[in-house]
Amino acid sequence: QVQLVESGGGLVQAGGSLRLSCAASGRFFSINAMGWYRQAPGKQRELVATVTTGGTTNYADSVKGRFTISRDNVKNTVYLQMNSLKPEDTALYYCNAHGVAPFNRDYWGQGTQVTVSS
Length: 118
Hints:
mainly beta, 0% helix
């Protein structure tokens, strides 16, 4: 099994910054990609950003230029630096581990709340 533990959420004013962290632990060989998704009340879960083992990143258009995803492959940890936060960034942020070997499946964290006040 694989466990994903998120931290770093909280309440911040518009224009502020937060840094999310997610550490993967358990018995596995590798994780193809790690990323962050978010779900606001009444909305579907959406992609925020992903990063592969090789460092290739992908961002939602709504966060490009404001959020930066990074990964420490030794620590199996992914980070999301969020700057210039907007009220519309308010959501429950979930960590995702994609293509975890040898299980060939995804795992999700419990979620960490990010609230941006106007």
